[in-house]
Amino acid sequence: MKREECLSHRRAATFAELRETNLKTSPACAIRELLREFRERPGEFTGRLFFGEWYAWASRCRLAPMVRTAKRLMRHLKRLVTWFEHPITNASAEGPNSVSHGLKTAARGFRSFANYRIRILFGCGRVDMEPVTRLSTSH
């Protein structure tokens, strides 16, 4: 599930061997990796052309999950090409969401939302651990 450039040398070698085998996952992996290049197109027109070629390959691959994914992405193509006008993602929001979901899963539930909120704040590093000092007030 990792990108190829993030693999260690040993795992990259194993991955290269697997890619050469005739498994059904090999074309699925190649289709997925090719789609990563969509955002690198210089504009909406070339992005649409690239997506059309990708879609043709993915929809003919005879792997039901890939065909379903290709059709789903085709239905959302209008939203996908907005990337070229506004190249932003929701990754900054997904990070804390992932952390909070992991904390909730690990705890197997909290007795109150307040306890859950405190755990999220600690888990995301947003709690100031410095002791509160009282300001002396002069009368």
Write the layout of secondary structure elements.
Blueprint: H1 9-20, H2 25-35, H3 44-60, H4 64-75, H5 77-80, H6 91-107, H7 113-123
Gist of the model:
It is built from 7 helices and no strands.
Key attributes of the depicted protein:
139 residues; mainly alpha; 2 domains; 60% helix; extended
Explained architecture:
This protein has 139 residues and is mainly alpha-helical. Helices cover 60% and strands 0% of the residues. It has helices spanning 9-20, 25-35, 44-60, 64-75, 77-80, 91-107, 113-123. α2 runs antiparallel to α3 (44-60) and α3 packs antiparallel against α4 (64-75). The mean pLDDT is 80.
Number of helices: 7
Mean pLDDT across the residues is 80
Supply the helix-strand structural class.
Answer: mainly alpha
Let me know the largest β-sheet. Answer: none
How many angstroms does the end-to-end distance come to? 65 Å
How many whole angstroms does the radius of gyration measure?
A: 23 Å
The portion of residues assigned to helices is 55-70%
Low-pLDDT segments: none
Name the shape in a single word: extended
Strand content: under 5%
What is the domain total for the residues?
Answer: 2
Instruction: Please write the string of helix (H) and strand (E) elements.
Output: HHHHHHH
Number of strands: 0
